[in-house]
Amino acid sequence: MKQYVMAKPELGRAEERAVIKVLRSGVLSLGPHIKEFESKFAKRIGVRYACAVSSGTAGLHVALLAAGIGRGDEVITSPFSFIASSNAILYVGAKPVFVDIDWRTYNIDCSKIEARITPRTRAILVVHIFGQPADMTAITKIAKKHKLSIIEDACEAISATHRGKQVGTFGQSAVFAFYPNKQITTGEGGMITTNSKDVVDICRSLINQGRSTDVQWLDHSRLGYNYRMGEMSAALGIHQLDRLSGLIRKRARLAQWYTEFFSNYKEIIGTPLIGSRNTHTWFVYVVRIHNKNISRDDVILSLKKCGVHSKPYLPSIHLFSFYKSVLKHRAGDFPVSEQISNSALALPFSLDLTKKDVHYIGSQLVRILNACK
Ligand SMILES: *Cc1c(COP(=O)(O)O)cnc(C)c1O
Predict the structure, then answer these.
(1) Which of 88, 135, 145, 323 is deepest in the core (most CB within 10 A)?
(2) Ligand 1 neighbourhood includes 84 CB (under 6 angstroms)
(3) Taking the CB of residue 113, how many other CB atoms lie within 10 A of it?
Protein backbone atom coordinates (compact mmCIF):
# COMPACT_ATOMS: atom_id res chain seq x y z
CA MET A 1 0.00 0.00 0.00
CA LYS A 2 1.19 3.49 -0.80
CA GLN A 3 2.37 5.32 2.30
CA TYR A 4 1.58 9.01 2.74
CA VAL A 5 4.25 10.39 5.08
CA MET A 6 4.11 13.56 7.17
CA ALA A 7 7.02 15.44 5.61
CA LYS A 8 9.98 15.04 3.31
CA PRO A 9 12.61 17.65 2.42
CA GLU A 10 12.98 18.70 -1.19
CA LEU A 11 16.67 18.43 -2.08
CA GLY A 12 18.09 18.68 -5.58
CA ARG A 13 21.28 18.40 -7.57
CA ALA A 14 22.41 21.86 -6.50
CA GLU A 15 22.41 20.79 -2.84
CA GLU A 16 24.19 17.53 -3.70
CA ARG A 17 26.94 19.31 -5.62
CA ALA A 18 27.36 21.97 -2.95
CA VAL A 19 27.85 19.44 -0.16
CA ILE A 20 30.34 17.38 -2.19
CA LYS A 21 32.27 20.54 -2.95
CA VAL A 22 32.60 21.31 0.74
CA LEU A 23 33.70 17.73 1.44
CA ARG A 24 36.42 17.95 -1.20
CA SER A 25 37.62 21.33 0.01
CA GLY A 26 38.50 19.89 3.41
CA VAL A 27 37.16 23.03 5.15
CA LEU A 28 34.30 21.55 7.14
CA SER A 29 33.89 24.17 9.84
CA LEU A 30 34.29 27.93 10.36
CA GLY A 31 34.59 28.50 6.62
CA PRO A 32 33.13 30.73 3.94
CA HIS A 33 29.74 29.01 3.58
CA ILE A 34 28.62 30.00 7.06
CA LYS A 35 29.31 33.67 6.30
CA GLU A 36 27.56 33.48 2.94
CA PHE A 37 24.51 31.71 4.39
CA GLU A 38 24.27 34.25 7.21
CA SER A 39 24.46 37.28 4.96
CA LYS A 40 21.99 35.88 2.41
CA PHE A 41 19.61 34.91 5.19
CA ALA A 42 19.72 38.33 6.83
CA LYS A 43 19.00 39.93 3.48
CA ARG A 44 16.09 37.59 2.75
CA ILE A 45 14.43 38.30 6.12
CA GLY A 46 15.20 42.01 6.04
CA VAL A 47 17.43 42.36 9.11
CA ARG A 48 20.99 43.54 9.62
CA TYR A 49 22.55 40.44 11.15
CA ALA A 50 22.16 36.68 11.17
CA CYS A 51 24.09 34.13 13.20
CA ALA A 52 24.00 30.46 12.15
CA VAL A 53 23.64 27.89 14.93
CA SER A 54 23.50 24.12 15.33
CA SER A 55 19.73 23.98 15.93
CA GLY A 56 16.70 26.12 16.54
CA THR A 57 16.76 25.07 20.17
CA ALA A 58 20.37 26.24 20.56
CA GLY A 59 19.35 29.50 18.90
CA LEU A 60 16.56 30.09 21.42
CA HIS A 61 18.91 29.36 24.32
CA VAL A 62 21.46 31.86 23.04
CA ALA A 63 18.86 34.50 22.13
CA LEU A 64 17.53 34.42 25.70
CA LEU A 65 21.05 34.66 27.16
CA ALA A 66 21.84 37.57 24.84
CA ALA A 67 18.70 39.33 26.10
CA GLY A 68 20.14 39.06 29.60
CA ILE A 69 17.42 36.74 30.87
CA GLY A 70 18.32 34.48 33.77
CA ARG A 71 17.52 33.20 37.23
CA GLY A 72 14.48 34.78 38.86
CA ASP A 73 13.12 36.21 35.62
CA GLU A 74 9.78 35.34 34.07
CA VAL A 75 9.15 34.97 30.35
CA ILE A 76 5.66 34.96 28.88
CA THR A 77 5.04 32.35 26.20
CA SER A 78 2.54 29.95 24.65
CA PRO A 79 1.80 26.47 25.97
CA PHE A 80 0.78 25.44 22.45
CA SER A 81 4.18 25.02 20.85
CA PHE A 82 6.99 22.59 20.22
CA ILE A 83 8.62 21.98 23.60
CA ALA A 84 11.90 23.72 22.66
CA SER A 85 10.47 27.24 23.04
CA SER A 86 9.63 26.63 26.66
CA ASN A 87 12.67 24.46 27.46
CA ALA A 88 14.99 27.28 26.37
CA ILE A 89 13.47 29.50 29.08
CA LEU A 90 14.25 26.83 31.68
CA TYR A 91 17.84 26.46 30.35
CA VAL A 92 18.64 30.03 31.40
CA GLY A 93 17.06 29.53 34.84
CA ALA A 94 14.00 31.65 34.11
CA LYS A 95 10.35 30.65 34.50
CA PRO A 96 8.03 30.11 31.52
CA VAL A 97 4.73 31.86 32.25
CA PHE A 98 2.11 30.46 29.92
CA VAL A 99 -0.77 32.41 28.44
CA ASP A 100 -3.62 30.56 26.73
CA ILE A 101 -4.07 30.72 22.95
CA ASP A 102 -6.59 32.12 20.51
CA TRP A 103 -8.76 29.22 19.27
CA ARG A 104 -8.76 30.63 15.72
CA THR A 105 -5.02 30.96 15.06
CA TYR A 106 -3.56 28.83 17.89
CA ASN A 107 -1.20 31.71 18.66
CA ILE A 108 -0.94 33.41 22.05
CA ASP A 109 -4.16 35.23 23.07
CA CYS A 110 -2.95 38.82 23.42
CA SER A 111 -5.98 39.87 25.48
CA LYS A 112 -4.75 37.55 28.25
CA ILE A 113 -1.08 38.63 28.35
CA GLU A 114 -1.26 41.66 30.64
CA ALA A 115 -2.93 39.74 33.46
CA ARG A 116 0.15 37.51 33.62
CA ILE A 117 2.76 40.30 33.80
CA THR A 118 4.51 40.67 37.19
CA PRO A 119 7.49 42.76 38.36
CA ARG A 120 9.68 39.77 37.39
CA THR A 121 8.49 39.59 33.78
CA ARG A 122 11.35 40.41 31.41
CA ALA A 123 10.32 39.21 27.99
CA ILE A 124 7.70 37.71 25.72
CA LEU A 125 8.87 34.68 23.77
CA VAL A 126 6.42 34.77 20.88
CA VAL A 127 5.82 31.58 18.91
CA HIS A 128 4.46 31.89 15.36
CA ILE A 129 2.72 28.55 15.35
CA PHE A 130 2.36 26.31 12.27
CA GLY A 131 3.54 29.08 9.91
CA GLN A 132 1.17 31.87 10.95
CA PRO A 133 2.43 35.05 12.68
CA ALA A 134 1.18 35.90 16.14
CA ASP A 135 -0.55 39.30 16.51
CA MET A 136 2.66 41.33 16.55
CA THR A 137 0.72 44.61 16.50
CA ALA A 138 -0.81 43.87 19.91
CA ILE A 139 2.31 42.19 21.30
CA THR A 140 4.58 45.08 20.33
CA LYS A 141 2.22 47.51 22.06
CA ILE A 142 2.15 45.47 25.29
CA ALA A 143 5.93 44.98 25.28
CA LYS A 144 6.52 48.70 24.85
CA LYS A 145 4.10 49.63 27.62
CA HIS A 146 5.69 47.23 30.13
CA LYS A 147 9.30 47.55 28.85
CA LEU A 148 9.64 43.88 27.92
CA SER A 149 11.92 42.35 25.29
CA ILE A 150 10.37 40.42 22.44
CA ILE A 151 12.07 37.27 21.20
CA GLU A 152 10.40 35.57 18.27
CA ASP A 153 10.34 31.83 17.83
CA ALA A 154 9.97 31.89 14.05
CA CYS A 155 11.09 28.26 13.68
CA GLU A 156 7.84 27.25 11.98
CA ALA A 157 7.10 30.44 10.08
CA ILE A 158 9.99 31.54 7.86
CA SER A 159 8.84 34.17 5.36
CA ALA A 160 5.36 34.61 6.87
CA THR A 161 4.21 38.22 7.21
CA HIS A 162 2.12 40.32 9.58
CA ARG A 163 0.95 43.63 8.05
CA GLY A 164 3.43 43.10 5.23
CA LYS A 165 6.42 42.69 7.56
CA GLN A 166 8.24 39.39 7.83
CA VAL A 167 8.44 37.43 11.06
CA GLY A 168 11.91 37.76 12.52
CA THR A 169 11.88 41.56 12.18
CA PHE A 170 9.62 42.44 15.12
CA GLY A 171 11.62 41.37 18.16
CA GLN A 172 15.00 42.25 19.58
CA SER A 173 15.96 38.89 18.11
CA ALA A 174 14.31 35.94 16.37
CA VAL A 175 15.15 32.30 15.82
CA PHE A 176 14.59 30.09 12.77
CA ALA A 177 15.11 26.33 12.46
CA PHE A 178 16.16 23.99 9.66
CA TYR A 179 15.29 20.50 10.87
CA PRO A 180 14.24 18.37 7.84
CA ASN A 181 10.49 18.90 8.35
CA LYS A 182 10.77 22.72 8.28
CA GLN A 183 10.18 24.84 5.16
CA ILE A 184 13.95 24.73 4.41
CA THR A 185 16.54 22.37 5.87
CA THR A 186 20.23 22.08 6.66
CA GLY A 187 19.84 18.64 8.28
CA GLU A 188 20.10 20.08 11.77
CA GLY A 189 20.52 23.82 12.14
CA GLY A 190 19.09 27.19 12.97
CA MET A 191 19.59 30.93 12.63
CA ILE A 192 19.34 33.88 15.00
CA THR A 193 18.41 37.22 13.42
CA THR A 194 18.67 40.69 14.92
CA ASN A 195 19.19 44.33 14.01
CA SER A 196 21.45 44.88 17.02
CA LYS A 197 25.23 44.69 16.65
CA ASP A 198 25.55 44.10 20.41
CA VAL A 199 23.14 41.17 20.32
CA VAL A 200 24.79 39.49 17.35
CA ASP A 201 28.25 39.93 18.89
CA ILE A 202 27.12 38.23 22.11
CA CYS A 203 25.43 35.44 20.11
CA ARG A 204 28.57 34.84 18.02
CA SER A 205 30.64 34.61 21.17
CA LEU A 206 28.18 32.37 23.03
CA ILE A 207 27.96 29.82 20.22
CA ASN A 208 31.74 29.66 19.97
CA GLN A 209 32.84 28.78 23.52
CA GLY A 210 32.46 32.32 24.79
CA ARG A 211 35.38 33.53 22.75
CA SER A 212 35.72 37.30 22.47
CA THR A 213 34.87 38.49 19.01
CA ASP A 214 37.18 41.50 19.20
CA VAL A 215 40.32 39.62 20.23
CA GLN A 216 42.45 37.84 17.67
CA TRP A 217 42.99 34.69 19.68
CA LEU A 218 41.82 32.84 22.68
CA ASP A 219 40.31 34.97 25.33
CA HIS A 220 37.16 33.44 26.69
CA SER A 221 35.30 36.35 28.15
CA ARG A 222 32.12 34.48 29.12
CA LEU A 223 30.76 30.97 29.60
CA GLY A 224 30.02 29.77 26.08
CA TYR A 225 28.85 26.72 24.20
CA ASN A 226 29.64 24.93 20.99
CA TYR A 227 26.47 25.68 19.04
CA ARG A 228 28.20 26.27 15.68
CA MET A 229 26.72 25.17 12.38
CA GLY A 230 29.04 23.16 10.09
CA GLU A 231 30.06 24.10 6.54
CA MET A 232 28.15 21.26 4.86
CA SER A 233 24.94 22.38 6.51
CA ALA A 234 25.56 25.98 5.52
CA ALA A 235 26.22 24.97 1.90
CA LEU A 236 22.89 23.12 1.93
CA GLY A 237 21.19 26.12 3.49
CA ILE A 238 22.38 28.53 0.80
CA HIS A 239 20.68 26.45 -1.90
CA GLN A 240 17.57 25.80 0.15
CA LEU A 241 17.24 29.54 0.68
CA ASP A 242 17.39 30.03 -3.10
CA ARG A 243 14.40 27.71 -3.37
CA LEU A 244 12.46 29.25 -0.49
CA SER A 245 9.85 31.17 -2.47
CA GLY A 246 9.12 28.19 -4.71
CA LEU A 247 8.88 25.82 -1.76
CA ILE A 248 6.42 28.10 0.01
CA ARG A 249 4.29 28.41 -3.13
CA LYS A 250 4.07 24.62 -3.26
CA ARG A 251 3.12 24.46 0.41
CA ALA A 252 0.39 27.05 -0.13
CA ARG A 253 -0.99 25.10 -3.09
CA LEU A 254 -1.06 21.88 -1.08
CA ALA A 255 -2.83 23.67 1.79
CA GLN A 256 -5.37 25.09 -0.63
CA TRP A 257 -6.17 21.63 -2.01
CA TYR A 258 -6.85 20.37 1.50
CA THR A 259 -8.95 23.41 2.42
CA GLU A 260 -11.01 23.16 -0.77
CA PHE A 261 -11.62 19.48 -0.21
CA PHE A 262 -12.69 19.88 3.41
CA SER A 263 -14.90 22.90 2.71
CA ASN A 264 -17.71 20.42 1.96
CA TYR A 265 -17.31 18.78 5.37
CA LYS A 266 -17.15 21.73 7.72
CA GLU A 267 -19.41 20.06 10.28
CA ILE A 268 -16.81 17.34 10.94
CA ILE A 269 -13.49 18.96 10.07
CA GLY A 270 -12.15 22.38 11.08
CA THR A 271 -9.62 23.84 8.65
CA PRO A 272 -6.98 26.50 9.53
CA LEU A 273 -8.09 30.12 9.84
CA ILE A 274 -5.77 32.90 8.76
CA GLY A 275 -5.81 36.36 10.36
CA SER A 276 -6.68 39.14 7.92
CA ARG A 277 -3.31 40.86 8.44
CA ASN A 278 -1.27 37.67 8.08
CA THR A 279 0.26 35.52 5.41
CA HIS A 280 0.84 31.87 6.28
CA THR A 281 3.80 29.74 5.19
CA TRP A 282 2.39 26.34 6.16
CA PHE A 283 4.81 24.42 8.33
CA VAL A 284 2.09 21.78 8.65
CA TYR A 285 -1.56 21.37 7.72
CA VAL A 286 -3.58 20.83 10.88
CA VAL A 287 -7.31 20.12 11.03
CA ARG A 288 -9.60 19.75 14.01
CA ILE A 289 -11.85 16.78 14.42
CA HIS A 290 -15.43 17.65 15.46
CA ASN A 291 -16.80 14.25 16.36
CA LYS A 292 -17.80 13.13 19.83
CA ASN A 293 -18.03 9.46 18.89
CA ILE A 294 -14.42 8.82 17.94
CA SER A 295 -11.27 10.07 19.58
CA ARG A 296 -8.62 11.87 17.58
CA ASP A 297 -6.17 9.12 18.52
CA ASP A 298 -8.46 6.43 17.10
CA VAL A 299 -8.72 8.50 13.91
CA ILE A 300 -4.92 8.35 13.68
CA LEU A 301 -4.97 4.55 13.99
CA SER A 302 -7.69 4.19 11.35
CA LEU A 303 -5.85 6.50 8.95
CA LYS A 304 -2.68 4.47 9.42
CA LYS A 305 -4.54 1.37 8.18
CA CYS A 306 -5.03 3.03 4.80
CA GLY A 307 -1.44 4.25 4.53
CA VAL A 308 -2.10 7.78 5.78
CA HIS A 309 0.30 8.97 8.47
CA SER A 310 -0.92 11.67 10.83
CA LYS A 311 0.05 13.09 14.20
CA PRO A 312 -1.50 14.75 17.25
CA TYR A 313 -0.29 18.33 16.81
CA LEU A 314 0.62 19.64 19.28
CA PRO A 315 0.27 18.41 22.86
CA SER A 316 0.13 21.35 25.32
CA ILE A 317 3.52 21.80 26.96
CA HIS A 318 2.20 22.49 30.47
CA LEU A 319 0.75 18.97 30.67
CA PHE A 320 3.97 17.08 29.86
CA SER A 321 4.97 15.15 32.99
CA PHE A 322 8.22 17.08 33.39
CA TYR A 323 6.41 20.43 33.21
CA LYS A 324 3.69 19.26 35.58
CA SER A 325 6.36 18.40 38.13
CA VAL A 326 8.41 21.59 37.68
CA LEU A 327 5.69 24.24 37.22
CA LYS A 328 2.81 22.46 38.99
CA HIS A 329 0.34 22.89 36.15
CA ARG A 330 -2.84 20.89 35.91
CA ALA A 331 -5.38 19.97 33.24
CA GLY A 332 -7.76 22.90 32.89
CA ASP A 333 -5.13 25.63 33.39
CA PHE A 334 -5.15 26.61 29.69
CA PRO A 335 -8.44 25.28 28.36
CA VAL A 336 -8.20 26.54 24.78
CA SER A 337 -4.74 25.11 24.28
CA GLU A 338 -5.86 21.81 25.79
CA GLN A 339 -8.98 21.65 23.68
CA ILE A 340 -7.00 22.25 20.49
CA SER A 341 -4.37 19.72 21.62
CA ASN A 342 -7.07 17.09 22.05
CA SER A 343 -8.68 17.58 18.65
CA ALA A 344 -5.89 18.73 16.32
CA LEU A 345 -4.48 16.44 13.71
CA ALA A 346 -1.60 17.12 11.33
CA LEU A 347 -2.03 15.52 7.92
CA PRO A 348 0.63 14.39 5.42
CA PHE A 349 2.34 17.47 4.02
CA SER A 350 5.12 16.22 1.84
CA LEU A 351 5.61 18.42 -1.22
CA ASP A 352 5.45 15.57 -3.72
CA LEU A 353 1.75 14.99 -2.92
CA THR A 354 -0.57 15.56 -5.88
CA LYS A 355 -4.13 16.87 -5.82
CA LYS A 356 -5.26 13.27 -6.27
CA ASP A 357 -3.25 12.21 -3.21
CA VAL A 358 -4.82 15.01 -1.17
CA HIS A 359 -8.29 13.86 -2.25
CA TYR A 360 -7.46 10.28 -1.27
CA ILE A 361 -6.23 11.40 2.17
CA GLY A 362 -9.23 13.72 2.64
CA SER A 363 -11.71 11.01 1.59
CA GLN A 364 -10.24 8.51 4.03
CA LEU A 365 -10.59 11.00 6.87
CA VAL A 366 -14.17 11.85 5.89
CA ARG A 367 -15.06 8.16 5.59
CA ILE A 368 -13.68 7.40 9.07
CA LEU A 369 -15.57 10.30 10.67
CA ASN A 370 -18.84 9.63 8.86
CA ALA A 371 -18.76 6.00 9.96
CA CYS A 372 -18.89 7.19 13.59
CA LYS A 373 -21.69 9.72 13.35
C1 LIG B 1 11.37 23.20 15.20
C2 LIG B 1 11.09 24.14 16.28
C3 LIG B 1 12.09 24.62 17.14
C4 LIG B 1 13.54 24.25 17.05
O5 LIG B 1 13.79 22.95 16.75
P6 LIG B 1 15.22 22.31 16.46
O7 LIG B 1 14.84 20.90 16.21
O8 LIG B 1 16.04 22.48 17.70
O9 LIG B 1 15.86 22.97 15.31
C10 LIG B 1 11.72 25.54 18.10
N11 LIG B 1 10.47 25.97 18.24
C12 LIG B 1 9.48 25.54 17.43
C13 LIG B 1 8.09 26.11 17.62
C14 LIG B 1 9.75 24.59 16.45
O15 LIG B 1 8.76 24.14 15.66
Answers:
(1) 88
(2) yes
(3) 20
